[in-house]
Specification:
The protein is mainly beta. It has one domain: Porin (Beta Barrel), CATH 2.40.160.10. The chain has a 16-stranded antiparallel barrel with strand order 1-3-4-5-6-7-8-9-10-11-12-13-14-15-16-17. Strand 5 and strand 6 form a beta hairpin. The N and C termini lie far apart (about 45 Å).
Amino acid sequence: MKKLAPLAVIATLLSTSALAEVSISGTSEFYYKDVDSQIASQKGDSMGNSDNEIKFSFSNKTETGLDYGMVVEMATVADSSATIDESSMYIKGDFGKITLGGNDDVTGSFGIGEHDIMDEEVTGTYTNASIQSSAGEKAYGSDSDKVSYIAPAIGPLTVGASYMDGGVAGDTDATAIGGKLAIGDNITIGATMAEQGVSGAIDNESHSIGAKVALGNMTLIGAMSKVEGADEDIDTVGAGASYKLNSDMTIAVSTMESEDSLDVSGTEKENLKQHMAEIKYAIAPGLTGYVNYTDYEYKNGGEASTDDDGSVIQFKIAATF
């Protein structure tokens, strides 16, 4: 009987300890894209299965109602090694939700941009990296380690904040705040602000505000943003609309313009105009097809990049598990 004692102890621990709930989900996408660009190196067609992800979620809940867990997202690419895209833990209760680790800041939870009107954001192939491709939120620090807090809703208002430590020197720290206000059942307003220090130069700063209106099968979005930094004073406006034709098909369109008043050559400012259209079709539960078309015109102004005027058409099939 004494030999059975350790087994009895283990059985007791398993019956009294809270075991984590584990879930695994994944996405896989395949696309064919054809680009018509004035830049020879960008022009042509391509295909790929490069946007795949496996998500592991562990969650637990105490007897007092405290939720805590861990989320790990792994990005995979065919013929290449897998990488950890995001990895963080969270603690959630009546006080709100705290996220610790490598994850997005709160601007992604609160920002509203015209690109949100569609599932796939197929941008032009212009080579500049600073002009804005949408009027939505701009974050600093990507998925770097940070602390984020989202407070409990106060009536129709929800707010949150994030902080990223840039390192020992402390001159590249980043902060972000955001909020959403629900007006009735149909209107949502979202606003964000983010700032990151730059060693020996002007700090980066961004602001955005957008509104989303749901009218039956139709959804409308309007947004504007401003991004400032060293040699950057970028104003962006955008609008989008979608309509659900039936239970399987949704169509969406959007338009935006972004201009940097500090990158000027003669009278020409750096400018991007971009128009998008999407048809989304539910083939089966968890299996969706997309057709996207983007028309764009980019003027470099005083930026060290190349003017480009072109279009992109993309066909994609996406599976979620």
